[in-house]
Amino acid sequence: MIDKIKRIWKIKDLRARIFFVLAMLVVFRAAAHVPLPGINTENLKAFLDGNQILGLLNIFSGGTMENFSLVLLGIAPYITASIIFQLLTMVVPQLEELSKEGESGQQKINMYTRLATVPLALLQAFAMIKLLSQSQFDIMGTLDAFKYTSIMITITAGTIFLMWIGELISEKNIGNGISLLIFAGIVSSLPTVVQNAIVNYDPSQLYLYVMFVGLAIVTIVGVVIINEGQRNIPVSYAKQIRGNKTFGGNSSHLPLRVNMAGVIPIIFAISVVLFPSMLAQLFVNGSGFMASASRATIALFNNQWFYGIVYFLLVFGFTYFYTAVIFHPQKMAENLQRQGAFIPGIRPGKETEKYLQSTMSKLLFSGAFFLGAIAVLPLIVQAFTGSQSLVIGGTSLLIVVSVAIEMAKQIESQIKMHEYDRV
Fold first, then answer.
1. Is residue 61 helix, strand or coil?
2. Structural domain boundaries of the chain?
3. CA dist., res. 261 & res. 175, Å (int)
């Protein structure tokens, strides 16, 4: 570890990139502690503590909701826009054609995603203000049209600001910018969690603390296994004879990862599973059918078994979905054929494509099931212990460990590229 840090420090370009990323994360955390004026933060904190769904969202966003900060919504609207456009790419022919145009097409889809983030952020800001103003706590004070509009615009600007920071981080090839922002938000809440655990320590519940530590270790080990696990497909290169010389005839392998989607399915699943309860919160204080349906929805998602099943299915489904977006067996088969390579026992072309798709599907089932199981494991334990902290801890560990592994891999690849350039 120390040797790797020394190698990183000696590479000026890589060192500058890492410092830039750290600086951007500091800017994000600083913005998360700048509250909007006219908000009673004490009453807001009390309201969030009494609401399980919003409390989870507050922890997940790194405390931006608790402070009612400039970046209240975090990058949730951008994630929602990304989910929408990735779904549309599967069903809208024009977007599907754009996705096949390579980098230029992807840039256009990214532009549409950014544009869609603005109305989504305005809508979510309106919903959040409406929800907080309807609570029994005096959080917002008296709201006139000007104050309402100015708060919505400020919150939306904060989301766009974070989106921009995330893209700047991604350009440095140290890690995915959006994932790193979520990572920073979760890590920043860890000191408070540890402090609360020490302050509220009860010797009679020592077994619970031991169980929590054991669960954390199992989660970390599980995430490492599914992120590092891969199947190596043997690949042979055809021999080519030119005059008296023979070229090719080498053997290599094609690695297929058990979990190609990384942490994205978890982020998508959390965004989707929180949406029904958030929407229901807006109408719970009304009357008639809408209020009854809202209360029923909130009660349904507060049921840990229902919540766990939905969460598991979403993680499982999004793992398949996102892998389908980034894994293209047809292109891989075409590239192998173009290079004069083939999988032993499999005909080049269509048969190779079918083989790669079939192999990936088998790997993906175990990876998606394992990822979903780790995601709901804290919920299962929580059902027997009654501790709400496990729900947050399990999801947080999944994201933190996955992002840390991905970041370490990208830094390692940057080191190898630098050493290769020197040679």
1. coil
2. 1-198, 202-387
3. 14
